[in-house]
Amino acid sequence: MEDPTLDPLFADLTEPQAEAVRHTEGPLLIVAAAGSGKTRVITRRIAYLIGCGIVPWSVLALTFTNKAAGEMRERVLHLLGGADSRQARGLTVTTFHSLCSRLLRKYADCAGLKPDFTIYDTSEQTALCKKVIESLQLSTTNFQPRNVLGVISNAKNKLQGPEQFAATTYDFASKTIAKIYASYAKALRGANAVDFDDLLLLTAKGLRESAVFREECQRRWKYLLIDEYQDTNQAQFEIASLIAGEGEANDAGVKRGPNICVVGDPDQSIYGWRGADISNILDFEEHYAGAKVILLGENFRSTSSILAVADTLIKNNKKRKIKPLFTRKQGGDPVDAVLCRDERHEAHIVAQWLKARHLGDARSAGEPWREMAVFYRTNALSRVLEETLRSEAIPYTIARGTAFYDREEIKNALAYLKVVANPADDVSLSRIANVPTRGIGDTSVDKVEEWARLQSETLLEGMRNVSSIDGVTARSAASIQRFVAMLDSWTGNGTFLGSEISGSLADLVNRVLKESGLEAMYRHQAHTSKSEADEERLDNLAELVSSAREFELEYDPDSDPAAFPGVDLASAGVLSETPPLLAMLRAYLESVTLMADADTVDPAQGSVTLMTLHAAKGLEFGAVAMIGMEEGTLPHSRARESESELEEERRLCFVGITRAMRRLHVSAAKYRAIRGLSERTIPSRFLAEMPTEYMNIHDKGGGLESTTEWDEMDQSAPEDRPARKAASPMAAEFPVGCRVRHPQFGIGEIKSIMSGAQTRAEVQFRDVGRKTLILEYARLTKVN
DNA sequence: CAACGACGCTCGAAA
DNA sequence: AGCGTCGTTG
Fold first, then answer.
1. DSSP letters of A50-108?
2. Cβ < 7 Å from strand C, A residues 648-687
3. In angstroms, how far is B11 C1' from A99 CA?
4. Digit-coded pLDDT (tens) for A265-318
5. N or C, where is chain A less crowded by C-beta within 10 Å?
6. Do the Cβ atoms of A650 and A399 come closer than 8 Å?
7. A231 phi and psi, to 5 degrees?
């Protein structure tokens, strides 16, 4: 029955793996333990589907990151016979967010949107939310945009619109948030913008409410595959179910349910905080009656020592579906566990360990730098590590792809482009109105904004009508009119950018940078301030132009999953009117906004990778070091109250451990500086939960007699801890007016005792231009 | 309207 | 320690 030409797809697969590949019809749940060859199974399965004669464009595979999608696509193409991609034409492998964005552009009117909407990132969301709170005459201290957005995001992830959310509120505060939510949603529509959560929410809503939207998707995609299913939220569940539909009866008239294949591991569910609903995977069999379930329990990645540590740890989770995790590999080096003095010491020890692994030893060959990684719970932990690695000349890269696009100069440039792409984008417009300064002050912008709000018009329309707005000086009005004229020169007269510019995106970016005066502004700054950072800004702008050029080279308008084969774009209305350059600009801005941190991890580079535990999911490295294994850091202090959050922290730790193939190093610091203050820590309970027989434990923290068990360490109750006692003793030693010496800043005088803080004082120094600094007592000595 | 400096708040992970 | 905001000054 099986086509012999497909045999290679089954080469070196275990029986459960092969079974998963072979199961093409009807719902399928693959519970894939860490390192169980999940990606291999998924890619072979897609190739097998196509090999069986299923049209590629009826296959939809969804992942969480662009990187995962890219790799999956690549591997499928490879299996189908190399670079010749014709066989896979129309195959959709993408992220949830990208898919939703494209679908919403195509079916914009089904979702109450215009197809040229902008996607707001976190900072734009915050800016808009703040404006909304202010316009409702509420205090942004009582209702902090950050917190309010968190509540709104949770609601959206649960598919609650403003009305549904309002129905769940009883107390005053949440009722007020419901009002903010309603206004915020309205403001987003007014700016022709959506936020990240809207991409999912509005797609789910559109699919549910519009039969056209839903049926076209169902008609196209007959085979659905979802990776990391344990991390899907309710909105994503809804989208998947609606696209999957009911399934069709086969030739024999037997109904099997839809061809939806989900892959995941409940033990690696680490996104509960952003609405991931683990019951999606746990209840899959209930949602899809007759679903086939395949367990992949054999680990092909790690040594048995590493696996034993991971397995013993995760067994401490009470709410857990027990599943086997085993390997045929035996032995392996023990896991190194080190207690360090403080974060600098820890960084040093990790650096030495990385160097030793790089060189290799009698038992094992050296690891190339790119095969090594350091994981941490919070981004703040990376700084000391970076400094140390730099001074030790260890090449490293931080997996924080968004960092580039977070820079002020880049955000300004992108804001200009966003306004070009979507003139209704008020948040971006108000950001750049006076950057560089062109005589449009906050007061004038406020006036125009107020007018626009009252008229339900966009800010740009307000600016056009500035002459009729009271309270704007003639001078400001003239500046605003010049500004509007500049914007019009880029977009205006129906011909997008006229005919002066070729269809090049990079040229467009360049032109906007020059004519807006942004480039000149940063060049001027670089000249006058001559600080390193300012010179870098110009380079970054140049880098932005290159990124646009790069995008342009790879851009393929046909790869849009919403550009359905056979669907005539001209008949789809608005899309046909869009000049190609504008379409490309929008696609570029979209890709920039939907870029994930993990997307920029480039293993081809010869450097150690630094990243958060969350970003590490789905990756593997020869040698892994995990730092900051302390109570309050991992598990994080904010997770302490709830048992379920604690279990999620444990899963996070499990994810980190199971990334390691050959060597693992875990460390804790006895003192760690948090917000600049050094604090005594307690080793993480997760260390105590690891089996010591697979570990090499070193106490390099000093002070304590060497102990071999983690749980014997730091038995001292918090009250007994040395240092940082009450303020009085130190404050008494260094009264106000007392003269002190600091090793770095020289002689100074105590100006004030920091209230609340017990370890710091404000000191004014003579030798440093009478600068006032806040310093720790510990580094001060008294002088007479 | 812009530049500068002091103050105060914050740090949890992300598309 | 780092950033944004507020208040003061030019």
1. HHTT--GGGEEEEESSHHHHHHHHHHHHHHTTTT-GGGGTT-EEEEHHHHHHHHHHHTG
2. 675-676
3. 33
4. 999 999 998 899 999 999 999 999 889 999 999 999 999 999 999 999 999 999
5. N
6. no
7. -100, 10
